[in-house]
Amino acid sequence: MHERIRHEGMLQKRMSAGEAAALIRPGMTVAMSGFTGAGYPKAVPEALAAQMEAAHAAGEDFKIKVLTGASTAPELDGVLARADGMELRLPYMSDPALRKRINDGELDYMDIHLSHVAQHTWFGFYGDVDVAVVEVVGILEDGRLIPSSSVGNNKTWLDMAGKVILEVNSRQPAAMEGMHDVYYGTALPPNRKPVPILTPSDRIGEPYLRVDPEKVVAVIETDAPDRLSGFSAPDEASKAIAGHLLEFLDHEIRRGRLTDRLLPLQSGVGNIANAVLAGLAEGGYKGLTAYTEVIQDGMLHLIKDGTIGFASATSFSLSEAGVEEFTENVDYYRERILLRTQEISNHPEVVRRLGCIALNGMIEADIYGNVNSTHVAGTSVMNGIGGSGDFARNGFLSVFMSPSVAKGGRISAIVPMASHVDHTEHDTMVLVTEQGIADLRGLAPKQRARTIIANCAHPSYRPALTDYFDRALRDSYGKHTPHLLGEALSWHERFVQTGDMRPAS
Amino acid sequence: MHERIRHEGMLQKRMSAGEAAALIRPGMTVAMSGFTGAGYPKAVPEALAAQMEAAHAAGEDFKIKVLTGASTAPELDGVLARADGMELRLPYMSDPALRKRINDGELDYMDIHLSHVAQHTWFGFYGDVDVAVVEVVGILEDGRLIPSSSVGNNKTWLDMAGKVILEVNSRQPAAMEGMHDVYYGTALPPNRKPVPILTPSDRIGEPYLRVDPEKVVAVIETDAPDRLSGFSAPDEASKAIAGHLLEFLDHEIRRGRLTDRLLPLQSGVGNIANAVLAGLAEGGYKGLTAYTEVIQDGMLHLIKDGTIGFASATSFSLSEAGVEEFTENVDYYRERILLRTQEISNHPEVVRRLGCIALNGMIEADIYGNVNSTHVAGTSVMNGIGGSGDFARNGFLSVFMSPSVAKGGRISAIVPMASHVDHTEHDTMVLVTEQGIADLRGLAPKQRARTIIANCAHPSYRPALTDYFDRALRDSYGKHTPHLLGEALSWHERFVQTGDMRPAS
């Protein structure tokens, strides 16, 4: 028997990536696996891109709509973007080639709360899903699928798609079998029931994905790793941000608002998140939990040393070293990690019930605490809102973090008015930069402004922010949230014109 | 036995409103009942305001922090604002005198998602609650309280306050006894359980509020009605908006995305909401449900005629005629109405589970669908976000409605860039003006802009919006969400300077 493809019918459907890609036709809506660079299909998108380029060379139109869990990798978003093969992409991306096309206006992109994607598909808001392309670790005798390094929206794609293409990736550790929790208890309103998760370790579903074998039109064997690099060591700014945050958490424990087990952590990805995780380990925390989207190398280390006792996520985004560590100690990790579908990992109901501590990055915040997570200068999208809204709105604490300046000081992360708003003043509790922390809980707008300017702004921008706020206090039309409308976006305008938010001296 | 105060100990605590008000001292945090002009204390705030004015006349400082459910009435917000007696007000207001003080910068105001207020108080984010002042219909022999015409945050105020002042209002119909559902199953994380509501009519709590009789320091007898006026008949714009919305709902039914029972309605207050409700009745709908914040006269009519089979809310905001109708037919209404605490009426978990159809007003939307619900010209607060965010983020549908112009055409409700954002592009599905409807589901930013300008903008502003968008497409820094930063807020700036968004001709 084939080691990874144990279902006889599906074994018969093996074909090349090129043959499978040929089943995807122009104008189709294609839903693919992949979340934070993990578990995306490795072969079909590249073959499809080649066919698109051939069609374009022959003067034919060939574009599709692409839905995923979240971000993927150059082998998916990169190749399809370079082939100019997408007319619509949702709900999240981080690929440089794709980003450029989007911001050049050549491609439509929908930036969606990650908890909304599955249900909006069920509701019919995005139309029919023609084809699903999903990476799996293996296929059982009965046709059920062993999910790969991310679950994302795969349950939804397999359920909703008219046709299914499976990529069976033998490079993904077979040891992942049993670590997933796929919940089939969802329903459409008015027939919904509570999601029965009371703690991050609660198992509520099945370890396998279901698929109707009749819908499977192609099975492709692949052998390529997720393309994830290990993290570089945190820089000074990230360490300082982590330091402020950890001091704040200590303060909350002393005030009795948290225990030393904290509450389930949701942590974004990247340098700052890693520095925070490292700080938690150094701070002597033990037995914490995570209810989050992504498990990266840093969190694996914390699970290993007992800082984190259990982690629930939807994606396992590990470097090759991380995969090796995981594989060597799989019995240990299997007891301490669950991967869920993203409508559950990010579910507002569960996030609010558990009282997550939501830790997310930002591009900028304004002096009133409105946060821009997505758009540079209000117009050019960076990645997307991802799950930050699911967690920030519903968590026990919503924290947004960024270095106070970028590009060698030419950009301030604290601005008079955010050039795009993803998280409103109603949803932001704590801002942190390497300068310090602004605890906005219980503060009205003008109190927020004073706190943010004093605690979070870089000293090189603080006088200009203070000057803006003082003049707005005097001259604003309304004095509840004072602004000078003719000047509120002038910092961004200057950046667009000169590459620098600072006035020419 | 006293008809309304059947608990002997509390009967002994009767005193005048002035004596009770004297228990409130400068600097205290005072939590009061009241939600949408219903169930607010009628006597103590006025007596307190008089004492504040006397103190101020004597050169003494006397300000307090005031927390409520939502908006109250002139007898609470009005008198305390005129007495300059508040240093902080949260989470919502609609009183003209208070609004003026806030926008003159004389008073801090926090505008908070209504589902967040109770839990943020439990979490300790607003500090201690010194005194609660809560209107009730009566006090039982065992000390439990019959809630009044709104429940709001009263459970939380009674639980959290150090001292409790009760106003027993004999004008409120005794017949309301038994119509409330106060849920005592909440907890702090990590001990939370699912909220067991599966349908709007599910009763999960008790009909009475609990209070520790030891904490009750004063009982005041009052006899004044909620100050609510009946609604005027919908104007032409409201009728047109309702017409577009009803046509859209019909379309969703034909597409199979809704049944003719729709899904539980959440409906804001005011002219447009009333026109929508009237339209549902005329459209022949039967047996609908509401899971909403407020039941007004219009909804009472729909319950009477069977259009709505059951309504769950937190406030019963009726005119005197409405109260009369309710009292005459109380046995009928009691089977069809529940009033809950506002952390339950607005709970994201329940709103998402039920799949509410969220219908809310707005001040303005920009061409990308970002909605401003709160701030005129970005700086001057109107009322507050209220529960619109709780429902819009979590509902099956999120609809925002407004006439396309205000002030005789001098203000456009569709603008290049929202001057304040309460609901982001990620949370707005449908915009409606009397001009038409923009269905934004499945649309990327530039597609949204074209749809909103074409369908919702007033013809007198459409050319200027099209011109802005076209030039932004050409000249914007990023072409994902094109904007001209130097011009994006110029309409608001012109309004502030000239009282008119239109350029001088």
From TrEMBL, chains A, B:
Residues 322-468 form the Acetyl-CoA hydrolase/transferase C-terminal domain. The active site is at 293 (5-glutamyl coenzyme a thioester intermediate). GO terms for biological process: acetate metabolic process; acetyl-CoA metabolic process. One of its GO terms (molecular function) is acetyl-CoA hydrolase activity. Residues 8-221 form the Acetyl-CoA hydrolase/transferase N-terminal domain. The keyword Hydrolase applies. CoA binds at residues 363, 383, 387, 407. The keyword Metal-binding does not apply. Pfam families: AcetylCoA_hyd_C, AcetylCoA_hydro. Keywords: Hydrolase. Transmembrane segments: none annotated. InterPro entries: AcetylCoA_hyd_C (IPR026888), AcetylCoA_hyd_C_sf (IPR038460), ActCoA_hydro (IPR046433), ActCoA_hydro_N (IPR003702), NagB/RpiA_transferase-like (IPR037171), Succinate_CoA_transferase (IPR017821). Belongs to the acetyl-CoA hydrolase/transferase family. This is Acetyl-CoA hydrolase/transferase family protein.
